[in-house]
Amino acid sequence: MADPQSPAEEQRKGPRRDASGRIVSLTDLVAYALAGFVISVLGMVAFDGLFALLGMGEFGDLTGWLAVIFPAIIFVEQFKAAAGHRGRLAVAPAAALLAVVLGVLAVGAASGFPPLVSGGLGALVTTVAYAVLWHLGLAAADRG
After folding, report:
1. CA–CA separation, 9 vs 42, rounded Å?
2. Which of 40, 74, 81, 124 could form a disulfide with 22 if both were Cys (CB 3.0 to 4.6 A apart)?
3. Could you read off the pLDDT of 120-136 as tens digits, one per residue?
């Protein structure tokens, strides 16, 4: 027979967080951000399909960069939760700049595809890169 879970384990939904609310594991942060990315993409595809059905453009014309909306909300939440960590004011803009540059390079590599696809690829690269750079940068700043 399985051991009953403690109430704290039963109530925990989503990624593991520390006392301040910051996601503690890189894999949890990346997975949570990717889940937000997928939700954003599904919403964009639905809206773009609706617009195409209504004759307001062709399917794929919507920019895929909108897929960073939910991940950006997650990252703002992480920035707020890291208020007590040293270096967050330096790590956040540096990680954002490098992640966006990598995303733009990905868009350039996929320039032959519709904006929904190429921008979505850029948003995906930006999301993953920012999550990794933020988490590792914050860990390095805390050690230094």
Report:
1. 30
2. 81
3. 999 999 999 999 999 99
Angle at 37 between CA 95 and CA 11, to 5 degrees: 100
Let me know if 45 is exposed, middle or buried by CB neighbors in 10 A (0-12, 13-18, 19+).
Answer: middle
Residue 50 phi/psi, 5° resolution?
-65, -45
- Report CA-CA distances (Å) from 47 to 36, 103, 123: 17, 23, 17
* CA 34 – CA 127 distance, rounded (Å): 7
Cβ contacts of residue 6 below 8 Å, gap of 6+? none
Minimum mean pLDDT among 25-34, 37-46, 77-86: which range?
77-86
Residue 106 tokens read as 């990905």
Instruction: Look up the pTM and report it.
Output: 0.87
What CA–CA distance (Å, rounded) separates 138 from 144? Answer: 10
Specify the amino acid at residue 56: M
Distance (Å, whole) CA 134 – CA 127? 11
Residue identified by tokens 């384990």 is 9
